[in-house]
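Hey, can you fold this one?
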Amino acid sequence: MALQLGDTAPDFTVESTEGEISFHDWLGNDWAVLFSHPADYTPVCTTELGAFAKRRPEFDQRGVKLLGVSVDPLDSHQGWAKDIETTQGAALNYPLLADPDQTVANLYGMIHPKADPKVTVRTVFVIDPDKKIRLTLTYPPSTGRNVDEILRVIDSLQLTSKHQVATPVDWQNGEDVIIAPSVSDEAAKERFPEGWETKTSYLRVVRQPR
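Sure. Predicted structure:
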């Protein structure tokens, strides 16, 4: 069965461009973005890996580790990394797992035979410090990912993990949020003493908690 939100992210130990990684130990008390690539030396993947490298400081600020995976061997990764730096203007600055036996790809359901039996799809997993899967995004091999959206979702997940709120459509960090329906008005008065705007009985808009 496919991994679902709330499942424990499967552990694994494989080689990477930064040495052997035992996933749960490597994650520690941080968040992680684990993202798969169909193959080395492919054009869309090259742009993605460069983009994540350029924007790594934004993930660091959020306590999020980046971890890529491709089903090609380590020596292929090392050669490809040179192309990434040359064409994208950013050197690989996070681990890229070498998964030629498809250990990680199979644990995480990254191979969709009806889409392509030979390569992994572009899957994104956001995993929290409790090793729980909090988000999955799956793209076809032909479509590159949106780094802004991944950061936006992480902001939402981290905010809503600490406060009893939800984030509305197109929400950006700093904008108003929604009080969770499970919070009564009485409880909301204690949690949000500055008040909120009641749109309906179930839609209560409040300033984002700090």
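The two ends are 38 Å apart (CA to CA). Let me know if you want another pass with a different chain boundary.
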